[in-house]
Amino acid sequence: MGPGRTVLPLNEYVGDREISSRLSIRNVTLVDPAGPTDSGYAKLRQWVDDSLDSFKNDLNNLLFPVFIHLYLDMISMRRENEALTLMNQYKEDFLEVHASEIRQIEMVRDISNLKENQFAMAFISNKYHLTMGKYAFDLLIDFLELNGMLKIGKIVNQYLNIKVFTGKMSEDIMDIGLVGVADFDFNKKPITSGVHYISPKVEELVLTEEQYKYEYLDQFLGILKKKKMENIPPNYERIPLPSPSASHISSEIDKLRDLAKRMNVGKHQMPSICCYTVHNTFETLCCSDYSPDLKLVALGYTDSYIEIHSLTDENLLKLKQSIYLKAPEMRTGKADDARDDVGKGGAACWAFGPCLCCEVLCKQAVFAFCLAGQHNSYVVFGHIL
């Protein structure tokens, strides 16, 4: 226990003060029709609030269990209206620390709810542990005696287990809470979880389709598999999954791309960003997109103009006419840092894709063109309103 500190159970300490007869009031009825509606709780609350700071912390811990037992006692005595008034008037004092407990107790509106509510029955069946300094406990007992608060006195005697200490309180005696509450703590149930993993169908597409080969998604899948073995998620076979739709597969692949781009950030590894401002758009710029290597940006305007800008020192080359497409040298013509194109309607969205397969299906509302740089070429898809 350490020098200068003594811990005594409540019954032993009360016996030393020869006031056990004053607290042994188990046979005294809790119902006091002549007493105030809140059974003196408002007076106790005000007294605690006016106490010295050196005692206030110990005494504040007393208010929550007393409040709960007064509420449950009113419910058991079929005084529902008074209980509801007590709850609405003082529950704000405890929401910051005991919000979940208050929500469960609020569900008890009549005596039938009281018997069905496990948390309420835990309060009635078990003692609430508190630690309190010797002087704070002496002040509490004197206050209850002088004001004749028999109901609160019985709650202290019957439902609270107060450990009285002298000297400085240490962590080994800071025992506050309801005995047996772990049996009713639903948040402590084990949860089967693990690393987010994509569906088998998406994995098959990423590993077999040529279009994902150069995005290195297969390497990231290997990293996810390794983490999956370390943190085993629920078995996919436990619940049969529906066949994934095309939109679901596309969403999963986009999510995989996003995960592959993430990086660890710390005080020794801070990220850097580049911001670009487009001037003189006159509120006509409606969409934009960056190329996968972050070297190009595409801008779409409501007046059907499409701009492709180079973000590096590599200039863009003019598109070749169809009669020259078979020429082996693609890099002919004057290079510029930006190119314009014109569609048939206002642009809605943009998307870059590696120019690995030049078979592009162009419908009435979709167009595509190939953009060549000094080291890379891209297929740019533009969706038109």
UniProtKB/TrEMBL annotation:
UniProt organism field: Nematocida ausubeli (strain ATCC PRA-371 / ERTm2) (Nematode killer fungus)
Main location as per UniProt: nucleus
InterPro entries according to UniProt: TFIID_NTD2, TFIID_NTD2_sf
A Pfam family matched in the record: TFIID_NTD2
GO molecular function: RNA polymerase II general transcription initiation factor activity; translation initiation factor activity
Entry superkingdom: Eukaryota
A GO CC annotation given for this chain: transcription factor TFIID complex
GO annotation, biological process: transcription initiation at RNA polymerase II promoter
Upper lineage: Eukaryota, Fungi, Fungi incertae sedis, Microsporidia, Nematocida
Protein name in UniProt: Transcription initiation factor TFIID subunit D4
PANTHER family, per the entry: CANNONBALL-RELATED, TRANSCRIPTION INITIATION FACTOR TFIID
Domain TFIID subunit TAF5 NTD2 as annotated: residue spans: 39-160
Record localization: Nucleus
